[in-house]
Design goal:
Elements (H helix, E strand, L loop, with lengths): L8 H10 L33 H6 L2 E4 L3 E6 L2 E6 H15 L8 E11 L2 H9 L1 H6 L3 E6 L2 E8 L7 H15 L4 H16 L9 H11 L15 E5 H6 L3
Antiparallel strand pairs: 1-2, 2-3, 3-7, 4-6, 5-6
Helix pairs in contact: 3-7, 3-8, 6-7
């Protein structure tokens, strides 16, 4: 399947980092895809080749296990790694639905989860959306869900954690239309599949995360409107030394 984020990914990052000013500063409280680099990362993202000199010259480090720090010509940039990866996965899942029975990585040992009838009903109503995401589930009875396949990008995650995250979004929303239900299921899946805060990243993984984020349609917020990026221009930095 063609990677919809591979093309123009490098240029999207360069435009942001080479610009004198940028518009990716988040505003207020509010709401992410990802990848590229010279070597394979461990974030479940497709590879893309880049010019090594460009990467090596880019200042980049991880702060407190949860934020990536880098810089543009106009200032300092902090990126929340969990929210950023959630945004990346959300857009990937949203733009590349899979056909039923395709695109899911089948589990050697399906996960059988005991749920309440109300939760099973929520998942049943959203089953077409789940299948489009590559989450292959069946319902043996009114209080059980069997997970038999996971999306490639979430293949290493705990099936129970993925289902719990999806249910959390669906429960909170209540009665909604099919389109919003699909969006909520996608957001929950992306959140549960995203790299957590506290995980140490390699430089390659940080590059993948930054480049993937700036290739997103809405890089400045996660699916719930919370900021993914904080920027500090020269004046903001200088003011700390007065």
């Amino acid at each position: 399947m063609r990677d919809p984020f591979k093309s123009d990914r490098i240029e999207a990052t360069r435009r942001f980092f080479d610009s004198e000013t940028n518009t990716a500063t988040p505003t207020g409280d509010g709401g992410a895809r990802l990848v590229f680099s010279e070597t394979k990362s461990d974030l479940g993202l497709p590879e893309a080749k880049v010019e090594g000199e460009y990467d090596h010259q880019r200042p980049l480090f991880q702060l407190f296990g949860g934020w990536i720090v880098t810089a543009t010509r106009s200032g300092l940039v902090l990126i929340d790694q969990h929210r950023a990866h959630t945004r990346i996965l959300y857009e990937r899942f949203s733009s590349a639905p899979v056909q039923k029975g395709q695109g899911a990585q089948q589990l050697l040992f399906p996960a059988v989860l005991a749920l309440g009838p109300a939760d099973v009903a929520l998942l049943t109503d959203a089953v077409e959306s789940l299948q489009a995401l590559g989450l292959d589930v069946v319902f043996p009875d009114s209080a059980t869900v069997k997970v038999i396949g996971l999306p490639q990008a979430a293949a290493e995650r705990d099936p129970a954690a993925l289902i719990d995250a999806i249910l959390e979004e669906l429960r909170e929303a209540g009665e909604v239309d099919a389109e919003l239900r699909a969006s909520l299921a996608t957001a929950g899946l992306a959140r549960a599949a995203a790299i957590p805060s506290g995980r140490t990243l390699t430089r390659t993984e940080m590059l993948d995360l930054v480049d993937g984020l700036f290739a997103c349609q809405e890089p400045d917020r996660d699916p719930w409107g919370r900021p993914t990026i904080a920027t500090f221009d020269q004046e903001a930095v200088a003011s700390r030394f007065r």
